[in-house]
């Protein structure tokens, strides 16, 4: 799946399920796509997405930050959405952090899921709008990933990568 197709998927999901407020309400997508969220403090970390018996689940360690929870859940939503038409691979599992390579090619399923999750949680127009507002308040994007991480409720690494992709410095 090409990056443009992933962007289109994000736009379609946002058009259908997003009310325009930040942060994007990922729970609406979880409900719509029937994703199971498993929460426990004994999980090593958040972000293990698993597919079995045509269902997608995401493990969340309750001790991790909310930003990591939201991004992990968005990756599960993204994987379910990207594979809904083709059918879900059975017994497929990936770690959002360990298995993601931002330089992977576009046919890598984990890369696709992470990109779609980024596009869902940080819609391009909203990112540009928030950066413009931030600059007027003296908040420069290159030094304020933490600020934007709180605005969008995503990990700082996600903000950095999204800014890089959009050419925001």
Short description:
This protein is an alpha+beta fold and 169 residues long.
Notes on the structure:
With 169 residues, the chain is of the alpha+beta class. It has a single domain, classed as Arc Repressor Mutant, subunit A, CATH 1.10.10. Helices cover 50% and strands 12% of the residues. The chain contains 7 helices and 4 strands, in the order ααβββαβαααα. It has helices spanning 3-17, 26-32, 66-82, 109-121, 124-136, 145-152, 156-166; strands spanning 36-40, 48-52, 55-61, 92-95. The protein has a 4-stranded mixed beta sheet, covered by helices on one side. A hairpin with a 2-residue loop joins strand 2 and strand 3 (55-61). Helix 1 (3-17) crosses helix 4 (109-121) and helix 3 (66-82) packs across helix 4. The two termini are 28 Å apart. The mean pLDDT is 89.
């Amino acid at each position: 799946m090409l990056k443009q197709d992933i962007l289109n998927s994000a736009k379609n999901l946002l058009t259908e399920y997003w009310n325009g407020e930040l942060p994007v309400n990922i729970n609406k997508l979880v409900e719509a796509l029937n994703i199971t969220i498993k929460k426990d403090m004994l999980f090593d970390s958040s972000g293990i997405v698993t597919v079995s018996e045509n269902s997608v689940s995401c493990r969340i360690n309750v001790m991790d930050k909310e930003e990591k929870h939201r991004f992990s859940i968005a990756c599960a939503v993204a994987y379910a959405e990207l594979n809904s038409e083709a059918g879900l691979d059975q017994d497929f599992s990936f770690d959002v952090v360990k298995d993601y390579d931002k330089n992977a090619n576009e046919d890598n399923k984990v890369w696709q899921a992470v990109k779609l999750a980024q596009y869902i949680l940080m819609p391009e127009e909203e990112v540009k709008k928030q950066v413009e507002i931030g600059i007027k308040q003296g908040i420069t994007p290159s030094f304020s990933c933490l600020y934007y991480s709180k605005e969008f409720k995503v990990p700082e690494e996600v903000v950095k990568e999204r800014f890089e992709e959009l050419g925001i410095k």
